[in-house]
Design a protein that fits this description.
This protein has 286 residues and is an all-alpha fold. It has 11 helices and 2 strands.
Length: 286
């Protein structure tokens, strides 16, 4: 049980406010992106579905930090079982999102393999939460449901899939840069997806690196807990930025100024990404 001082609570609540703001923005932007994908009939290819699915999983996962809102009014501690139930879906969608981002980078697999892999990986945190469950009370942060050795396994699994994602995208990027027959549209589409991956995986890398340094320092458990929230800001900011990146890199800003509608330019570029990834020999018509 944590025993934060009055000054530590002030700092913790300020940091949590920043974390919750990033998470809330991510919920809104990613669910909006998922809704655009779902409600646009032309976005039904496997690539379109994966992009929309990643956004949906991101949006659900980012409800996880918001579950801790009780810390703004009290000590925020709840029963471990209740915490595990509340965080179960956000934890599963976290792993599903990481698997989804990796799947977009592996272009030669079939859609069936994509979704099977995402589903299987999504259930891994549920296994960890059940197998290592310990009764007690904690502040219900995103890592809180992982008790004992499961916390380390949770971090290792996320690190492994994100590292694999980074390597996969870099290999594909090198292949595209050296391939003469790749169209400008294909290069632009992959550039956008690559930037999204860098922001996503970069957020996790900064988070893990920050935590490694923080836990190596000789500080109290209370200070480490606050640093855990600071590290979470990197991840949630990266996830929240995805929709904005799709919008900005699409080069549809002029159309967005003329037509005061967020969804229209986003739909246009999602169509461009889909068409480019499906046909790497021809240009894309606007």
């Amino acid at each position: 049980m944590l025993n934060l001082s009055a000054s530590q609570w002030v700092v913790a609540r300020i940091v949590y406010g920043m974390l919750a703001s990033c998470a809330f923005a991510g919920v809104c932007s990613n669910l909006a992106l998922a809704l655009v994908s779902y409600r646009t009939p032309s976005l039904r290819s496997s690539c379109d579905i994966l992009i929309g699915l990643c956004a949906l999983l991101d949006g659900i996962h980012q409800f996880g930090p918001l579950i801790q809102f009780q810390v703004l009014f009290g000590d925020g501690e709840i029963d471990n079982f209740t915490c595990s139930m509340l965080q179960l879906l956000p934890e599963m969608t976290l792993f599903g999102e990481c698997a989804c981002v990796l799947s977009i980078g592996i272009e030669r697999l079939t859609a069936v393999v994509y979704f099977a892999w995402i589903l299987v990986f999504s259930f891994y945190p549920a296994y960890l939460m059940i197998a290592y469950f310990e009764p007690g009370r904690h502040i219900c942060s995103v890592p809180a449901p992982f008790h004992g050795d499961s916390g380390e396994k949770w971090v290792r699994a996320l690190t492994a899939v994100n590292s694999t994602t980074a390597v996969t995208y870099c290999v594909v990027a090198v292949a595209i840069s050296k391939r003469a027959g790749v169209s400008p549209a294909m290069r632009q589409a992959f550039r956008c997806v690559f930037i999204v991956m860098v922001v996503d995986v970069g957020g996790w890398a900064l988070c893990n690196g920050f935590l490694t340094i923080a836990f190596a320092l000789d500080v109290s458990a209370e200070t480490q807990f606050i640093l855990l929230w600071v590290a979470g800001i990197f991840v949630n900011f990266g996830l929240a930025a995805k929709a904005s990146i799709y919008y900005t890199v699409s080069q549809c800003e002029l159309e967005a100024r003329n037509v005061m509608c967020y969804n229209k330019p986003l739909i246009v570029f999602l169509r461009k990404i889909s068409a480019a990834l499906k046909n790497n020999t021809g240009d894309i018509e606007d």
